[in-house]
Amino acid sequence: MHPILHHDAGREAEILHNACAKAMAFLEGLERRPVRPPRRAVDVDAEAFRLPEEGIGAEAALDEFWARHADGLSGSAGPRYFGFVTGGGTPAALAADWLVSVVDQNAQLNGDTVAAALELATVTQVRDLLGLPAAFTGSFVSGATMANLVGLAIGRQWLGAARGIDIAKSGVAALGPVRVLSTSPHSSTLKAMSLLGLGRDAWWPVAALPDSEAIDPAALEARLAEAPDMPTLVVANAGTVNTTAFDDLPALVRLRDRYGFWLHVDAAFGGVAAVSPRFAGRLAGWEAADSITVDAHKWLNVPYDSAMQFTRHLDMQLATFQNLSPYLSAPVARPDNYLHLTPENSRRWRALPVWMALRAYGRGGFAEIVERCADLAALLGRRLEELGGFELLAPVTLNVVCFAPRTSGDAAAGRDAFLEALNRDGRVLCTPTELFGRPGVRAALVNWRTRMEDIDLAFAAMRDALDASGVMAAGAQ
């Protein structure tokens, strides 16, 4: 054994205690850590780092990393990171995630670990948490992008089977042109279309309801009638990224039953709203979908990377992702045979953090997180609107505040100047967007740590950034 590796083998406890001490220091300072580190801390000159001929050992490497790069770590796990749709890690999920690395299980159905059985139990619990019927099976993947890809891939196979074609065997060219109908597809859907050989041009845009990101069912039916026999995938939204719009899923199910398309529901973060009695009605109809995406590293607040895909069509999923090799388990259609159900062969045991979080906090704990985030988002929206220097670009209906500064000049330049000032301040992070052709700003609240005092700090930072940017229209306040 290499002498440094031999040395580290005898000091594993000290190494892990060192890592734990640094992790605790990070967590204890999380609320004070800038959500966006200074540029000097995040720019790393890769050429300055050379592979050493001889290593320095785990403890020295850990200390070097922390000394050099800790200041470049974002406070994205904290309560005022409102960029993208980013959760944190609850204590239970974080502890489980550490254990996942320690026990390092092969999460396939191998007969030598409990990993696959516990994943099936976790998927079943999530399905029950969200009110989905037992007809759905599911598995863990890395994120919503991969979950959307899996759902559309199964749909592609189903479209072929309906026409006597095995797409997994013959390729998508054997099916001919396929269209994907949607109003506001997430960018990951378009990426999935590219990866699946459908092509981004296969997206046929569908008109939205007035002043909304939601599908107009009448416009969808008109689109379907343009080519009633064309293989079709419809991608519905259960929570768009700008306005948290939910498509009218019962109406889409009725159209699916009439026209015979595949209905995929992208419920990356909005699906978790089903745990709340206040918001569960917005998911009405998704129980009849063909495939569903739900993200775990958003509102379920487990560490990256973790999401789930659900489908009613296990046979089509097996046909799509089966992996034939004499040293692997046989491709049998059972819901825990994960080697044959997702794109990955090697899979991290993503189920354990979700299992432990569900056991730790239960239905009531996650309902409280969802409702608290929604209440705080509504409060932030009201305060911004009442200030006068901002305008809401859409009503706050769940957990996203989409707004813009009232500027005296170019709207995009004013928005960018405001965000630059907000980033320099470091107390809160939001991301730019565009809604109905207007430049805007998004604040998405999904972190379990976010409380009333964080809204106070975030609002103060936004007000100060508006003043500092100098873009406010005359008389706006």
UniProtKB/TrEMBL annotation:
**What processes does the entry annotate via GO biological process terms?**
amino acid metabolic process; carboxylic acid metabolic process
List the signal peptide residues. Answer: none
Give the family this protein belongs to, as stated in its UniProt record: Belongs to the group II decarboxylase family.
In-chain residues carrying the UniProt-annotated modification N6-(pyridoxal phosphate)lysine: 298
Cofactor(s) this protein requires = pyridoxal 5'-phosphate
Asked whether the keyword Lyase is assigned, the reply is yes
Asked if the keyword Transferase belongs to this entry, the reply reads: yes
Entry-linked InterPro entries: Aromatic_deC (IPR010977), PyrdxlP-dep_de-COase (IPR002129), PyrdxlP-dep_Trfase (IPR015424), PyrdxlP-dep_Trfase_major (IPR015421), PyrdxlP-dep_Trfase_small (IPR015422)
Instruction: Tell me which domain of life the UniProt entry assigns to the organism this sequence originates from.
Output: Bacteria
The name under which this protein is listed is Aspartate aminotransferase family protein
